[in-house]
Design brief:
2 copies of one chain form a homodimer.
Chain A lengths: L4 E8 L26 H16 L8 E5 L3 H4 L5 H6 L10 E5 L4 H14 L4 E8 L6 H8 L5 H4 L6 H17 L3 H15 L14 H4 L30 E9 H7 L7 E10 L12 H14 L8 E4 L4 H10 L9 H6 L15 H4 L4 H16 L14 E8 L4 E9 L1
Parallel strand pairs in A: 2-3, 2-4, 7-8
Antiparallel strand pairs in A: 1-5, 1-6, 4-5, 6-9, 8-9
Helix pairs in contact in A: 4-15, 8-12
């Protein structure tokens, strides 16, 4: 008889970075006059925005959890619970802390909020934020390699994580005969969805299948590792984004106290975390750790993959999305390419995935991503997605947020009320 | 009717660093042949050791929480939930994650375990670890400054945190007329206690009041800031330590299942976290954020400060211990020096504080400290402290773990059963 947890709503900042029109770089008209928001600024921007969207006053919040991967490195700033509290004087002395599980930090924050509600809290603020564009791509890649087994894996390539997933792409494509052309549909879908999303990093950048399907000057390979370099192009990668997302998780009692109708909220039917040894993975062709979390989540929620109407999955690279279709049970092992060829995961398909553009199109401010997942499912369920709103209101949704090379995974199942 | 949480036991590694006989530096006979343990090694060492001490098998653990402040910086390694899982194959796919709240990370891990038990878990592993001696003192000071408001406060001194607390020492000493000689008793007590503790960083280093009470060549001031430099000597500082501590928190059901008698465990009667804005503090002469946590903890546990028989407090600097006596209600505001002059907080005093040497004597591997606090109270309650065992078994204990300049604080109250 555990206490139930609900999403009340929340907000995103725009996700920005290279190729986003508002991102201040040396070619931008405001360069030298204005700067991109800092990590602290993102927290101070997103918290009031999310509270307003959720209809909750700061003083009513019981606890807050901040998801961030590498603030100490990109922004010289840790201790982010305290930085978040600076967003509103009414938060002073409330319990706020930061959680970290690499790119799954946002999912861990959501899980921590669900646990807090089970433990007795009524209103919990979940905030995810990351700033990465303070450093160049090579330095950033070194920082992000701290999500891998740094001493053992850093040397695989200057771009460690792209290479770890190129390794998976090679293994998977060889095992199951998936062509580069087929894989390219993941990125094409991501950009097409992002082009309809005003908060997306790639909202103004077009990608057609012609460009996505083969390496070219405009879509180059960039790894150095000779064994894996041909298995990953720029278009296969998620974005190096700055941004923040936040939402409020509430107990049933809080809904009553706030006079919130059931049809304005979404129930978190299950939220499951699995963590596997940094010395891994055992299999390159399946996301076994994520599958463990997914299996538990389905069991806890009492549904199976057929019930899912909308999904947000962690497409850190295009191959990851393909493998997540299988880890989440949308396709049998080795069969995921069928979904791409059928268009089943497109916005008008049977099981729309990453309707706002995913990590490849919407962007990937690392700590924010898992929070964004939950909020995107909520927004689709409540008809808040504007130009990328699904035609049919979803009844069940799922999100899968992974950290490192599938070493941490949070799978969450949502029920529309 | 919340589920109760209990400490089952745990373990420390030795805390090591400069001046510890086992610490490998260029003057050590093993230099070049052997190296100090890495962060990953500390996690792999402490987890089996703590599980054995607690009498729990790895496969029985439901969840694990890792406390660490700055692994990304000192060790190029984040994603520490996954690094911890590497300690035992039986932990694979269990939910493990990392929490961070600067020097209060360990307290937050303890709190997260208590919340997990309230939410339904039965056995939760709490691990704290930090490695800081991979870098020199100046670089380390820059890393640790990420626990402050880096952009605003970094420039106060090359040693940012020592200076922030020298600022408090100056304000407090001027406000309440406390002499340097009186303050020195904090460090003298810390070293004397550490000299009886085989795990203490300063176990072989002596400090008498003669040396502690005034700056000298052997106990110099080292800050650059002209306003504050005379308010902090080397002997006033906690140690730059490497080390790990871990323990198991259990539900009442788990105690029954494991057949554990009440007198082998300690109840966590309250565990309260307060977080205040990084833009702070409002008062230099009181630890108001910690006091907020302490007030809530006493109310939750239903006891007052007079009941406390043993305390572990966050003496990151000697002035912090003095101010914590007041935040925890052992003395009225401005009156803490009475306790030092009376010897009340010495190991044979009325309210022994930091019996194993505290952060100044035992050492301060940042993420481990809050976990160590809890385990030290447990060990005193269960008679496991050897040469520094209290004569009278404590019935009630308290710990206060703070992060940054009192921006995060976890206060925990323990009841011996």
């Amino acid at each position: 008889m555990q206490r139930k947890a609900f999403v009340l709503g929340g907000a995103h900042t725009p996700y920005i970075g290279k190729f986003h029109p508002d991102f201040i770089w040396k070619g931008h008209p405001d360069f030298g006059k204005r700067d991109n928001p800092s990590l602290g600024e993102y927290l101070r921007i997103i918290i009031p925005k999310a509270l307003a969207a959720a209809g909750v006053e700061a003083r009513a919040i019981d606890k807050g959890i901040v998801a961030n991967f590498a603030g100490e490195l990109f922004s010289n700033q840790g201790h982010l619970g305290s930085v978040a509290v600076a967003a509103d004087p009414a938060l002073d002395t409330k319990p706020f802390w930061r959680v970290e599980g690499a790119c799954a930090s946002g999912g861990i924050a959501l899980l921590s909020a669900v646990e807090a509600v089970k433990a007795g809290a009524d209103l919990v603020l979940v905030v995810g934020a990351e700033v990465q564009n303070t450093k160049n791509a090579k330095e950033g890649a070194d920082y992000l390699a701290r999500a891998a087994d740094y001493d053992a894996q850093r040397s695989i390539d200057p771009f460690t994580f792209p290479c770890l997933f190129a390794r998976r792409a090679k293994a998977y494509r060889e095992a199951y005969g998936m062509s580069e052309e087929t894989l390219a549909w993941v990125a094409v879908k991501a950009y097409a969805n992002a082009n309809k999303n005003p908060n997306a990093h790639m909202r103004t950048v077009k990608l057609d299948h012609e460009r996505a399907k083969v390496a070219s000057d405009k879509n180059p390979v960039f790894l150095s590792n000779p064994e894996y370099k041909d298995y990953l192009k720029v278009s296969d990668c998620s974005q190096v984004s700055d941004g923040a997302s936040a939402l409020v998780v509430a107990s049933e009692e809080a809904l009553e106290r706030l006079g919130r109708s059931r049809d304005s909220v979404v129930e978190i039917a299950a939220c499951e975390l699995a963590t596997s040894s940094i010395v891994g993975p055992k299999s390159l062709v399946s996301l076994d750790n994520c599958k463990a979390a997914a299996d538990r989540a389905y069991a806890r929620a009492g549904v199976n993959p057929d019930a899912i109407d909308v999904a947000e999955v962690h497409d850190c690279f295009s191959i990851t999305e393909v493998m997540l279709y299988e880890a989440l049970g949308f396709a049998a092992q080795g069969q995921a390419q069928r979904l791409l060829l059928d268009g089943a995961t497109q916005i008008d398909g049977r099981i729309p995935v990453n309707t706002g553009g995913g990590l490849i199109g919407f962007g990937h401010p690392v700590g924010a991503t898992g929070v964004k997942h939950a909020l995107e499912v909520f927004r689709q369920m409540k008809g808040q997605c504007g130009d990328y709103q699904l035609a049919k209101t979803p009844q069940w949704g799922i999100s899968a947020n992974i950290g490192g090379d599938d070493r941490t995974a949070v799978v969450t199942i949502y029920r529309n009320l």
